[in-house]
Amino acid sequence: MTKHTNQGFSLSQPVYTNRSGKKCTSSKYHVRFKDHREVWRRLPAFTDHSASISFGRKLRQLADMRSVNESPRGELGAWVDSLPDDARSKLLDWDLLDITVSMASKVLTDHIDEWNESILADGRTENHANITKVHSLRIINACKFFKFRDIKAEPVKQYLALQQRSNGISIETRNSHLRAIKQFCKWMVEEERANESPLMGLKMLNAQTDRRRTRRALSITELKKLIKTTKSGPMRGKTSGRERALIYCLACETGLRSSEIRSLNTGSFSLITSPPTVTVEASNSKRRRRDTLSLSSELTTDLRKHLANKLPNAKAFSLPKRSADMLKDDLVRAKIEYVDPDTGAYLDFHSLRVTCATLLALGGASPATSQARMRHSSIELTMNTYTKLGMSGQDEALQALPKFSTGA
Q1: Does the predicted model carry a pTM greater than 0.70?
Q2: Are 291 and 285 contacting, i.e. CB atoms less than 8 angstroms apart?
Q3: Cα separation of 95 and 115, whole Å?
Q4: Is residue 15 assigned to a domain?
């Protein structure tokens, strides 16, 4: 039995033969309609006549939108999301849905898991992949986004503003959360799972206007004192005082970050070349490039002793993840202030990188040389953020200048 409508589709209840050979009428209506290419298609609907009529209308709307190359939005998009997998698969086969619409119908957590796997496959560290995943999910859950089509710029903007206002998060933390979910949206577009990113218009804020933790450099006197007292210091976890002192020297000379030092193995060092070098693999470098840095003869001598009995693939150092706590304990023992009482500036592990940039300036290195050594994207970052001369540093730099006074 077929019931025609004046809405571009018809309903029928097909007749079939059961196992006993008896002819039966299907209890479920089927919708027959023309697709965007004027080809007749048929899909099973419901046992309820009114629900089947509504189903037919939606199929016609979908065909009409596809004929003008538009994707389903609003109520029609929500209806596509609610379709069972077999019905959506049929519509994909008939080209009534494109792959981006189908992908947009998947729950976000599935996309996030696959994005996380993609990050790891690109050679990024597990720690980086986990942080970006957590930051993205925090926004997705807070804004109650379920499908990709749910993601909107305004709820994300309001959530981040609320976190700054109510929970006091820094601009840097706000930016890291926004950066993570924007990267996810960009990946969705690149993988052809979405047509465009809904967060394109959201911008990062200037973190320099909201520095929660400023860092200072160790003076040369402080650095010598720290190295001397640490060498004779006790074991801290699995790290001896001598090894910790060597780690601090390496960080101050090369500007390597704690995660980069942690990634080094014996094979990362080439100590018989001229000059001797240390290499950080791209997967462990913040800028995703393989970096090779030269080493001084003094540091090379100490490294040879330290690495002498280690296998090529053995970890070079036993550097704990809470490296800031390790350094803080050694600063206390050396009687060096962790927080400067006058400026409030900190001496955490990343301050050793700041110390490196400052020592380069004191040593007369050109800004371009310092930028290359620090592996920064801009000279401004090297000179304005990482180089902390201070009054004592300025005095040391002044003493290094040639004497040009007339003596008058």
Answers
A1: no
A2: yes
A3: 26
A4: yes
